[in-house]
Amino acid sequence: MKASNSSFVSRHKAKISGSNGPTLLFAHGFGCDQSVWRSILPSFEEQYRVVVFDHAGAGGSDRSAYDSYRHSSLAGYAEDVIALCEELMSDRVVMIGHSVSSMIGALAAIQRPDLFSHLLMIGPSACYVNDGDYLGGFDRPELEQFLDLLEANFQGWGTALAMLSMGNRERPELADALRDRICRTDPVIAGVFARVTFFSDLRADLPLLMTPTTILQCRDDPISPEAATAFVNANVRDSRLVQVNASGHCPHISHPDELIQAVRLALEIPAKVD
C-alpha cells in the first residue's frame, strides 16, 4: 500500500492499494482511524483500487488538516472527502463509510453526485437523539451527561464508549482494542467531534441524496438501532437495507468475514429494484 504525495491527500495520510479496477473509498467512524479496515481490505484488493485515509484530527493525519471552524460540522468533513476524491480519483467512487462517515458520505454525494457511484453505509444514523416519534437511540439529557464524562474523564469515557459500541461482551479484547484507538485521539478534538457526531440532525437532507445507497445493519447495534437505519432507508430515494449476520456497531472489527460477504453482495447489486 502506498501513500499519495499530493498535499491535501498527504495531510490525511491517504493510502492506495489493489488493482486498476473501480475505486473503493473506505472511511472510518468516530474515534478510529484507517487501521480499522485492516481485516477487510485484502479481500477487495485483487478486484478493486482501494483507498483509505484518516479524518482530520484522527490517526496519522497531519495536525494542520484539522480546522476548528471547518470541522465544527459534518459539512466540513464532507468537504474533505470531496477534496480527497477530486485530488485522488480519476472516476466515480464507491464510498464505504462506517457510522458517522455514512452521513459524511451522504453530504458529500448530495453536494457532488458526480463523484460517487454508490454509497455503502455501515450502521448509519441521520440523528442520534430521540425526537417525538423518531427513535434515534438516545435521549438528549442522556447524551449530554455522557459527553460531559468525556471532558471529566477521557479515559473512562473511551472505555464506556468502546464497550457500548463493540458489544460482543464474550470477547472483551475487542472493546479493549477500540478503547485504545479512541484514547489515542486528542481529547479536545475528540470532544468537538463527539458533539458534532451525536448532535447532528441530517434527517431533512436524506431526500436530497440521489446516489444509489446500501445500508448495512447489524443485530443489537446500540449506536444505530434498527429504527434509525430504517428511517435512513425510508428517506433515501434509491436505497436498500441489508441485514448483516453480525452484532454490535463495529462489524469490520468483530465480524470481518460476515461484513466482507455483505459488501461483496452490495457491490454486485448497487441499487434496489422497485
Report on the structure:
- The structure is a single chain.
- This protein is α/β, with parallel strands linked by helices and 274 residues long.
- The protein has a single domain, classed as 3-Layer(aba) Sandwich (Rossmann fold), CATH 3.40.50.
- Helix content is 40%, strand content 16%.
- It has ten helices and eight strands.
- It has helices spanning 7-11, 74-88, 100-111, 140-152, 154-166, 172-183, 187-199, 226-235, 251-254, 256-268, and strands spanning 2-3, 15-18, 23-27, 49-52, 93-98, 116-122, 213-219, 239-247.
- An eight-stranded mixed beta sheet has the order 1-2-4-3-5-6-7-8, sandwiched between helices.
- Helix 8 (226-235) links the parallel strand 7 and strand 8.
- Helix 4 packs across helix 5, helix 4 (140-152) packs antiparallel against helix 7 (187-199) and helix 5 packs across helix 6.
- The model has no long low-confidence stretch (mean pLDDT 91).
Entry keywords:
single chain; 274 residues; alpha/beta; Rossmann fold; globular
Number of domains: 1
Name of the CATH architecture: 3-Layer(aba) Sandwich
| CATH class category name | Alpha Beta
pLDDT < 50 runs, ≥5 residues: none
Radius of gyration: 17 Å
H/I helix tally: 10
N-to-C series of helices and strands: EHEEEHEHEHHHHEHEHH
Biggest sheet layout? 8 strands, mixed
Which range does the strand content fall in? 15-25%
By CATH, the superfamily comes out as Alpha/Beta hydrolase fold, catalytic domain
Oligomer: single chain
Shape designation: globular
Mean pLDDT, to the nearest integer, reads 91
Helix content: 40-55%
Distance between the termini: 39 Å
The total beta strand count reads 8
Q: Helix/strand-derived class?
A: alpha/beta
The CATH topology: Rossmann fold
The strands making up the biggest β-sheet line up spatially as 1-2-4-3-5-6-7-8
